[in-house]
Specification:
The complex is a heterodimer of chains A (about 140) and B (about 400). With about 140 residues, chain A is an alpha+beta fold. Helix content of chain A is about 40%, strand content about 20%. Chain B contains 12 helices and 12 strands. Chain B is α/β, with parallel strands linked by helices. Chains A and B meet through strand 1, strand 2, strand 3, helix 2 and helix 5 of A and helix 8, helix 10 and helix 12 of B.
């Protein structure tokens, strides 16, 4: 399996690895995937009073492309509103990282992680839950 | 300082021993004759070389040289043995028995025979990879004509009890085929004692060249095969095609070296394997796959919990190792061998096969241990599953959203 330089960069130097403290306010978590499928992504977002994602962290069990996809997503969601974050599509992730066809599911999972984290935030803060965690 | 990448994938293939390469070269250039040419010295010289190599291959397994048929490799040998015997003996019955952890060259061949109307039983091994003899016996039927069991498993290195299975098959008049591609030079094989009817060999797993192998076909009691390759009637009609003299000479020399140096070499690789095992055992949550007693000395197959296999392979790029088997590394499927042992998918995903060989050094093993320890630590830092494990969550109770 050969990887693009962008995947290798994120894999070697993953951005925003970690977990927020349980006492942090405005934190929501999306966990998608399954160990049996070979990848599990945990994406956390920290949302401020204006509804803007001011910070994000991730942990991923998965291949290099899965790690890179989730690392990239933490960079992209920062500074976005929840709705803007939901507009990130897996195709954009796959294109940015030049994922080969067999790795497209990693970008799908990263998109699902965003949806799951936003859904978790909305559930905790009383808004309507619109998206399921995982599909496809 | 060791030179990277470090080759720890000797069960995928081995380098040709320089002594073997040296023997082969003259047969490409000046001694280029066709061994089937009976009318001149070029042919006679080539034939003599082929027959000497046949003796060397037979000597390693204590067989008669007349029982050795040259093929292109173990895959062809397995095809010729299983299809050849099944077709020849199908008048007696149409049932075949094999094991779920066999090489694809056996499994796909048996599957093909199923499409022709044969029936097959695929035995599930015990969790340690070994086939239970009672279960084996129970699978045999009055219409069973061929049984195929590998001597040494390519992924987990376990050694099956082919002596016992051979006795059982012989008593019932069933043809017993053994794929020994991974066994030569690792396990002593004595075909004068073993009740094996057909045995497959490969040169390139034993420091010989790729593209050459052999099939042992027992003469007493005589085993018959239907040829799969038709043509000039070479190899007593069992496998037509001009013999590749240089390849055959290489296999002969490789097997001669294997016979003479097996004892010392096994000590060398066992010491290094045990050193590797001791080093990696210091890491938390590692699991050896396959029985450690009935196992070839150069294999260590180990799963690292909470780390995904492909990212591990990527992290340890300085080591040339296999995740699952080399044949399945290109796909996302976890190893079917480990699944057959009942390993969970995530442990099957995170398995690494280290296979040590003739040219591996202690410094390389020490480098490998340090590298794996560091990278496992890093990947677990990244792993949400590791966090959950550390928090005491039993991952098997978590309801995962399948995707």
């Amino acid at each position: 399996m050969s990887y693009s330089t962008k995947v290798l960069d994120h894999y070697e130097n993953p951005r925003n690895v970690g977990t927020f403290g349980s006492e942090d306010e405005g934190v929501a978590t999306g966990m998608v995937g399954a160990p049996a499928c070979g990848d599990v992504m945990k994406l956390q977002i920290k949302v401020n009073k204006d509804g803007v994602i001011e910070d994000a962290k991730f942990k991923t069990y998965g291949c290099g492309s899965a790690i890179a996809s989730s690392s990239l997503v933490t960079e992209w969601v920062k500074g976005k509103t929840l709705d803007e974050a939901l507009s990130i599509k897996n195709t954009q992730i796959a294109e940015e990282l030049a994922l080969p066809p067999v790795k497209i599911h990693c970008s799908v999972l990263a998109e699902d992680a965003i949806k799951a984290a936003v859904a978790d935030y909305k559930a905790k803060h009383g808004a309507m839950v619109e998206t399921a965690a995982c599909k496809g | 300082m060791v030179k990277t990448p470090i080759y720890l994938d000797y069960s995928a293939t081995t380098p040709v021993d320089p002594r073997v390469a040296e023997q082969m070269i003259p047969y490409l250039t000046e001694k280029f004759g066709n061994p089937a040419s009976r009318s001149h010295e070029f042919g006679w010289d080539a034939e003599k070389a082929v027959e000497e190599a046949r003796e060397q291959v037979a000597a390693l397994v204590n067989a008669d040289p007349k029982e050795i048929v040259w093929t292109s490799g173990a895959t062809e040998s397995n095809n010729l043995a299983i299809k050849g015997a099944a077709h020849f003996y199908q008048g007696k019955g149409k049932h075949i028995v094999t094991v779920m952890t066999e090489h694809k060259a056996v499994l796909d061949t048996v599957r093909h025979l199923e499409s022709e109307g044969f029936e097959a039983t695929y035995l599930k091994p015990e969790p340690n990879g070994l086939v239970d003899i009672d279960q084996f016996t129970a699978a045999l039927r009055p219409d069973t004509i061929v049984v195929s069991v590998m001597l040494v498993n390519n992924e987990i290195g376990v050694v099956q009890d082919i002596a016992a299975m051979g006795e059982i098959c012989r008593a019932r008049g069933i043809i017993f085929h053994v794929d020994a591609a991974q066994a030569t030079g690792k396990v002593a094989i004595d075909l004068s004692k073993l009740k094996v009817d057909l045995m497959s060999f490969s040169a390139h797993k034993t420091y010989g060249p790729k593209g050459i192998g052999a099939l042992y076909v027992r003469r007493k009691p005589r085993v018959r095969l239907e040829a799969q390759m038709h043509g000039g009637g070479h190899e007593r009609g069992m496998r037509s095609g001009t013999l590749a003299t240089h390849q055959i000479v290489g296999m002969g020399e490789a097997f001669r070296i294997a016979r003479e140096e097996m004892a010392a070499e096994n000590e060398h690789v066992r010491a290094l394997r045990d050193r590797l095992y001791a080093g990696l055992s210091q890491i938390e949550e590692v699991h050896v796959n396959g029985d450690m007693e009935n196992r070839v000395p150069h294999n260590l197959n180990i799963s690292f919990s909470f780390v995904e296999g492909e990212s591990l392979i990527m992290a340890i790029r300085d080591l040339a190792v296999s995740s699952g088997s080399a044949c399945t590394s290109a796909s996302l499927e976890p190893s079917y061998v480990l699944r057959a042992l009942g390993r969970s998918d995530e442990l099957a995903h995170s398995s690494i096969r280290f296979t040590i060989g003739r040219f591996t050094t202690e410094a390389e093993i020490d480098y490998a241990i340090d590298l794996v320890k560091a990278k496992i630590g890093r990947l677990r830092e990244l792993s949400p599953l590791w966090d959950m494990f550390k928090e005491g969550i039993d991952l098997s109770t978590v309801k995962w959203a399948a995707h």
